[in-house]
Amino acid sequence: MYEKVVTRFAPSPTGNLNIGGVRAGIFAYLFARHNGGQFILRIEDTDKERSKKEYEDNIIDSLKWLGLEYDNFYRQSDNAARHEELLRKLIAEGKAYISKEEDGNGRVEVIRFKNPNKEITFTDTVHGKITFDTTELKDFVIAKSFIEPVFHFAVVVDDADEGVTHVIRGADHISNTPRQMLIREALGIPHPEYAHLPLIVSSDRSKLSKRKGAKALSEYRDLGFLPEAILNYDAFLGWHPEGEREIYSKKEMARKFTLERVQKSPAMFDEAKLLWFNAQHIKKLSDEEFSKRLAEYALGYGSTGEAKDEFDRRLVPLIKERAQTLSEAKELLREYDFLARVSVGTNMLLQNGKIEKQTASRHLQAATKLLEDVNDEDFTPEKIKNVIFPYATEHGRGEVLWPMRVALSGREKSPDPFTIASMLGKKETLKRIASAAEAL
RNA sequence: GGCCCCGUCGUCUAGUGGUUAGGACGUCGCCCUCUCACGGCGAAAACAGGGAUUCGACUUCCCUCGGGGUCACCA
User: Fold this and answer.
1) Which nucleotides of chain B have an atom under 7 angstroms from any protein CB?
2) What are the residues whose beta carbons fall under 8 Å from the beta carbon of A325, sequence distance 6 or more?
3) How far is it between the farthest Cα atoms of chain A?
4) SS3 of residue A432 by DSSP
5) Distance between CA atoms of A328 and A223, rounded to whole angstroms?
6) Rounded alpha-carbon distances, angstroms, from residue A208 to A14, A91, A175
7) Cβ–Cβ < 8 Å for A95, A140
8) Residue nearest to nucleotide B26 (CA to C1')
9) Residue A285: per-residue pLDDT
10) Would you say A257 and A217 are in contact if contact means Cβ atoms under 8 Å apart?
């Protein structure tokens, strides 16, 4: 039916792009890419009062961060002349008229559409057949003046001029569809394919909004979320491919995406699951990529990530496994500074009194003896475990391993002592155990 | 209220007339283990209700109930 698919994302710059708002963009993007079509971004800035440049910038930055590259960019206000032209055409043809009315402050003029009062039926790709009686719409307003078209009129004209074949948007637009179709018919423009996405709702089941706690994409970025995870989770709220796999890259989703598998019912946004998606995507990153991301995050965006060498590479795999977000990773980086230095409190060494001083001291000395037999070049977690574990098992793992681990890390929580010992090397390991024993 | 949309575990979902109703997040338990994570195993947990069609309904139809969206010179 269509030579080529063209979809668009048309946000209004009246707020930062949030997790709910961007979803229509994600689906429109995925659909366009799946079909080898075009995806365009149009900033709907006809409301001069509320539109702000900073929001437009936020939208553009957010899309870039997510990786939703668009093939064309439009600003609705740039099409004013075209809007006026068609407004005049409609009036000339008797399909719209200038209406003089009272608005409380005095007489004003608006342009109203002459409603043919007919029944409109369309087949929504996700919902199926939907029918409306447009009589109740009356002669609705399509412009405040020739240079101030109202949303319904502007979208129709722009979508047609920009060649949009598939209008993919939120379900809150379903009831706007009949009046837009009426305008298209009056203008002699063919109807596009409509696909209305189920709404994302907050915990009270109402439409997710800024007021209801929808965070901006830029906030999630600052919180240490990966764009891959946001994209993946947001897409999976209301869509998913066949099979039980959940972790997908942007490319993989584009390959699998069809409107037929889009859900009809609203989906609730669950940050706990987002966190899980994020942790999964972090684990998927290579150590190099992860440390680059972490560097960018920890040092601020705009930094090159060159400073990643400041991070100890030995730490990266450990942190990657433990952190759910880059923010947690940054925290862990600070916590795991034991590679550089360590200071151990006696109390912690004895697990707050759970271990006898003499016992701990004895085990530390035993560990030293055992470790001395391990070659410097063989100082791997496995080898170390092989010599220590039998002894620990025999004498009580807790009483042996806890003091040893704390002696090495200086922390109540840390990776296991074998891993740390290996990272520190034989010399430093023995040194730390000795100084802990001395402290006792 | 009118019109429109929606209704499977708490949440995201699989399911298209015959299934022990499957998976994931979360929760709980166990294992791994010296701690913190990761990981593994397991448990609890759902077809809103009522009719109709059918030999047989989660699956089809109708009604009820429930939830939501929209009724702007905002998009």
Assistant:
1) 2-8, 10-15, 22-26, 33-38, 67-75
2) A223, A224, A225, A275, A278, A279, A282
3) 100
4) helix
5) 9
6) 16, 39, 18
7) no
8) A272
9) 96
10) no
Nearest nucleic acid nucleotide to A236, CA to C1' distance: B12
Distance from residue A397's CA to nucleotide B33's C1', rounded to whole Å: 10
CA of A248 to C1' of B30 (A): 31
Distance B8 C1' – A270 CA (angstroms): 19
CA of A233 to C1' of B40 (A): 25
Residue nearest to nucleotide B33 (CA to C1'): A416
Which nucleotide is closest to A10, CA to C1'? B75
The predicted structure's pLDDT at residue A323: 96
Within 13 A of A288's CA, how many CA atoms are on the CB side?
A: 0
Confidence of residue A143 (pLDDT cuts 50, 70, 90): very high
A327-364 burial by CB neighbour count: b if 16+ within 10 A, else e?
Answer: ebbbbbbeebebeeebebeeebbbeeeebeeebbbbbb
What percent of the residues of chain A are helix, what percent strand, and what percent coil, each to the nearest 5?
Answer: 50, 15, 35
Nearest-nucleotide field for A145 (CA, C1'): B73
- Nucleotide closest in space to A102 (CA vs C1'): B73
Q: What is the pLDDT of residue A440?
A: 79
What are the binding residues of A for ATP? 210
Quote the tokens at residue A82: 């075209």
Eight-class DSSP state of A183: H
Lowest mean pLDDT among A61-75, A303-317, A370-384: A303-317
Between the CA of A314 and the C1' of B75, what is the distance in angstroms?
51
pLDDT category, A249, cuts 50, 70, 90?
very high
SS (H, E, C) A14-82: CCCCECCCHHHHHHHHHHHHHCCCEEEEEECCCCCCCCCHHHHHHHHHHHHHHCCCCCEEEEHHHHHHH
As a whole number, mean pLDDT of residues A205-226 equals 92
Going by the annotation, the residues of the binding site of A are 210
CA A34 to chain centre: 20
**Spatial distance from the CA of A198 to the C1' of B58 (Å):** 21
Phi, psi of A166 (to 5 degrees): -130, 115
Which nucleotide's C1' sits nearest to the alpha carbon of A111?
A: B73
